[in-house]
Every structure is written in C-alpha cells, then in structure tokens.
C-alpha cells in the first residue's frame, strides 16, 4: 500500500452530468464494503500520504489536466499589479484602521501597518519563487504538496479556503457600512437584528449577499474580462486614495499624533496581527500564475510591485486619518468618511465612501477569482470532490468552484460580526504564510536522493530550532506583558539556528528562473514574524481555529485521505512521484523547461 503516488498516467474523463461519479468516483466509495475496507487501512494510507510528495512536473501537467479544459493564458505583469492592488486595498484599510486606532494602538497604527507590511512582503518573496517555478492555479496548496507532502498541504488547503470565505464575508459586511454612509444612514439601518441569535451573529446583512451574488456573476464569465473591470475600478480607487491623502493632510494637526503610542508597544503588535487582514489577497494573485503569459517575468513584477504600492498607500492613509482627528474620536465603522465630516469637509465623505465601495468590490472580485482556483486545484488532487475541478470549455473559468465558494461566503457574511471574521482570518493567513516560508527552506536545502543523511539531519535540527524559538517568543509575548528575559534566550536561538543553517547545510537547489534573495535569512524571518504575530491574537479566535482544524481532520480521515490515496494509486506512471527518501534529481531542470514553454 505504501509508496503509491501520482504520475503521468491517463486520467478519467467525466461528463457534465452531476452524479456520484463527479463527487466520489474513487474505488474506496464504490459501496459500503469498499468504504469499510478503506477505513480499516487508514494507518498505512496515512503513512503513505505523509511520506509522499508530488513533483513540480506532476502539478504542471497531470494534475492540471484533470480539469479537462485549460485555463486561458492571457494575463501580463500589468494585469497582475492591478489585480494585486484590487485584491488587497479594501476593507482592511477603510474599516479596521479606525477600529484599531481607536481601541488598540492609537496613532501608532501607522507602525502596525509597517510591521504587517514587512511580514507580508517577506511572504510575497516566498510565494513569488514558488509561483514562478510551479505556475499552477493551486497556489500555496500546490507548493506545500510538492515540498511538505499531501497531509500538510490538505491542512493548509482547509485554512486557505477558510481564509477566503471569511475574508470575502468581512469585506461584504464592510461594503454595507460604507454604502450606508454614502446614503447618510447608519449601517444598522440596513441590517436585520435577530434578537434570538447570539449577539455576534444576530445582525443579518442582506446587502452583503446581493453584492456577493453580483461578484459571482462577473467572476464566472471571464478572467480577462474580470481583469479589465478590475483595472478600471482600481484606477478610480487609486485616484480616491490620492484624494484622501492630499485633502486630508490639508486638515492635519500635528497635536493629534500625541500621544503616539497610548497603548504601548504591545498595542502596535496587537494591531499588526489584526491588520494583517489588510494585506490578505496577494496570494490570490499567485493562483493566476497558470493564466500568465510569461510567469518568470510577470509574477515577480506583479506581486512585488503590487505589495510595495499597497504598503506605501496604507501608511500614508493611516497617518492622514490620525492627523485629522484625535484617535479617541475616530469612527470604527466608516473612519475616513466620518473624519472628513468632522473636519468640515462633509462633501468629501461621499467621494471617500464611493472609493471605499469601489475598493471593496475589486477585493471581492479578485478574491472570488483566487479562491475558485485554489478549490479547483485541491479538487484536482481529489482531496475534495473532482466536480469542483471542472473548467468550463467556453469561459475557461472554474464555474462550479466559483459558485460554491461564494455561496459559502454569502452565508457567513449574512450572519457574522466583522470583529470575529478579522481575527480568525488573520490566524489562518499567518499560519499558511509560515508554512510557505518553511516549504521554501525545504525546497532550497533538500532534494530527495541527493541530500545526504547528515545534511538532512542538520536541516531538520535547524528548522526545528527556528520553529521552536519562534513559537517560544510568541508564547512569552502573549503570557508575560512586562518580562524581557525570555527574549534574551529565544531570539539568539533563532539567530544562531538560522546562521547554522546558512553555514552548515549546503544548499541543494538553486532556482532556475527567479529566487528569494538572502536565503535562509528572509524565509526564516518570515517564519518568526508570522508566528510572533499569531501570539498577539485573542484566545477565542484560537479556539475557533482549533474547532475548524478538528473538522478538517475528521473530513480528511473519513473522505479526503482515501479519495486522494485512490487517485494516486490509479496513476500508471509511478516514476513521477517522489518520497521523502526517494526522488528525482532532475526536477528543477524539467520544471524550468515546462515553465519556459
């Protein structure tokens, strides 16, 4: 049983009819007897999935072929930059800035955006190298499947999907808030208060559902059409951002920056953890790698360019807001609109509200495109039903995945409070970004069949110390508000572990097209910062995260494990599979050729 995997064999073709074969076509689900037999083999199958890793070429060819139709390659770096701006600048800056400045960090929210931006940029570098080398719709799911194996990829996949559903729901609810401002109403006027429900889930938001339905329609029609709409909307959005900064600074008062850190350094990092939500979205751009004309050129320029512009815009907007009025008086629902009204520029609030609505609409649109492509690639691996992997022959878009993901987003957005959504979203996102940075270090320092046992053991030791010291630093931060002795131990351990990795473990693989600079320092720093920010998130959010992870495991052990195992077993070309201890040394060269074709 152990050691079966995926290769280049023939794939089953199913029609468009919606039947059992579209959802559970694998041998383990033929009948109850087969299913009981599969469950009895859970242990060996789990071992196989833990040790088995996919190949770059498998993701690029055989797995992609399971969608039956190709996605259209029609995006350039220019499209990706605007997709990135459209995906990121939305509810985070227009809503959460006010909430965090008023209650958590004060004017130092500007520094919170800097910390979050640095963390996001480090993650962008890691994503970019993977996206260039493995330009498929699966994004981080595909990257983790290649480097950390099926099991870790599935856990990440579940959190990726949670990230997108929650992020879309949060933006849709924020859309209602600014729409109310545009019409001179309170957001509560457009929500239904269901007193019989829990307070966090009782303010029902029908407008968010309508907005998501419109976005869904646009997303399923055409990726290039979505890009054109996003480009136009994002230009308007950028013009509004420039207006906010210029007009807002004409009413700036330096005394509003005093005190700058009313809640101390801890408040800065607490806000950073939540405001990381503001940077969520760039990973959706990496899922479009399969649709880019020249991945080696378009992806680095698109991702890094979009994140640089976004970080600068966030810092300028946050500084402008805090200079316009004292942080205690910032409105938590529509901070920029209310700020202009407070300083006597009431007419400007309509421009701001309009720009915010435009920004949130593009965030929803790009998110819809990205989340559908994640689900499509996960379904290609049969970790979820292959029905979700189908690409429509005419539109070249994954319609099934798009509709299902947005229905889930609409349901969550209809019920759930923004505060719950933003904290839970940040946990999932930081966790995934940490795994991608870890996977990049594995990719650079380990090649199956080439790396010696001693080098592998040193790599495992260094990575374990990097992770352990980062977790210890985050725990110490969360549990001891005034101490410093712990940092004097954990930070040097992180530094020395990274240094040891740099000096003692030879790099096993160099990127053929584009690579992260300063390896292992930048990926290691990304791991440390992401884990540290996790230590600033409240306990209830971690409980919700734990419940979601438990549900993922239940699904995996009852369905996902057996479906993906059967799919791998049916593959006829077992040479296109590598194990942790057995692999192909020509992976990088083959991948480079595939990408350049």
TrEMBL record:
A GO term, aspect molecular function: L-glutamate transmembrane transporter activity
Organism: Acorus calamus
GO (cellular component) term, any one: plasma membrane
Pfam family, one: AA_permease_2
Bilayer disposition of the protein: Multi-pass membrane protein
Localization in the cell: Membrane
Membrane-spanning parts: 75-96, 108-130, 151-172, 206-222, 229-249, 269-289, 301-327, 347-370, 399-421, 427-447, 459-478, 484-506, 513-533, 545-565
InterPro entries assigned: AA/rel_permease1 (IPR002293), CAT_C (IPR029485)
Keyword list, A-Z: Amino-acid transport, Membrane, Transmembrane, Transmembrane helix, Transport
The keyword Transport is assigned to this record: yes
Major subcellular site: membrane
Domain named Cationic amino acid transporter C-terminal: residues: 514-564
Name of the protein in question: Cationic amino acid transporter 1
Coiled coil (UniProt feature): none
